[in-house]
Amino acid sequence: MSILIWLILGAIAGWAAGQLMKGSGLGLVGNIVVGIVGSFLGGWLAGQLGISGSETGGLSIASIITAIVGASLLLFIIGLVKKN
User: Fold this and answer.
1) What pLDDT band is residue 68 in, cutting at 50, 70 and 90?
2) Cβ–Cβ under 8 Å, residues 40 and 65
3) Which residues, 6 or more positions from 30, have their beta carbon under 8 angstroms from its beta carbon?
4) How many CA atoms lie less than 13 Å away from 17 in the CB half-sphere?
5) Which has the minimum average pLDDT: 14-23, 34-43, 48-57, 67-76?
6) What is the pLDDT of residue 67?
7) pLDDT value for 16
8) Residue 75 to residues 14, 36, 41, 47, 58, Cα–Cα distance (Å)
9) DSSP 3-state assignment of 1?
């Protein structure tokens, strides 16, 4: 069941990040992968910054926001690498 939640969270975060970062969308599967990796990145970054309630262990508003921020950051980094 948790894998299904990760896929749903990844799809939501990847789609939202693709909308926020115009021109950075990677298609449905790419957005899901970016969303999943971005949720881990966002959770790690929030933990490092001491932001509580941003864990990515379930499907909540805080986890969705954390995943979107992480996925957007990841798309930004991918965009920088692609330019070089």
Assistant:
1) confident
2) no
3) 14
4) 38
5) 48-57
6) 84
7) 87
8) 9, 12, 12, 20, 22
9) coil
CA distances from 16 to 52, 69, 83 (A): 22, 9, 22
- Residue of 9, 18, 1 whose CA lies nearest to 56: 9
**Cβ-Cβ contacts under 8 Å for 51 (sequence gap 6 or more):** none
The reply to whether the predicted model has a pTM over 0.70 is yes
Cβ(64)–Cβ(12) below 8 Å: yes
Structural domain harbouring 23: 2-83
Of the candidates 66, 48, 47, the one whose C-alpha atom is nearest the C-alpha of residue 56 is 66
Q: How many domains does the chain have?
A: 1
Please report where in the chains the tokens 């929030």 appear, as a residue: 46
CA 47: distance to chain centroid?
A: 15
| Cα separation, 1 vs 68, whole angstroms | 21
Q: What is the mean pLDDT of residues 41-67?
A: 76
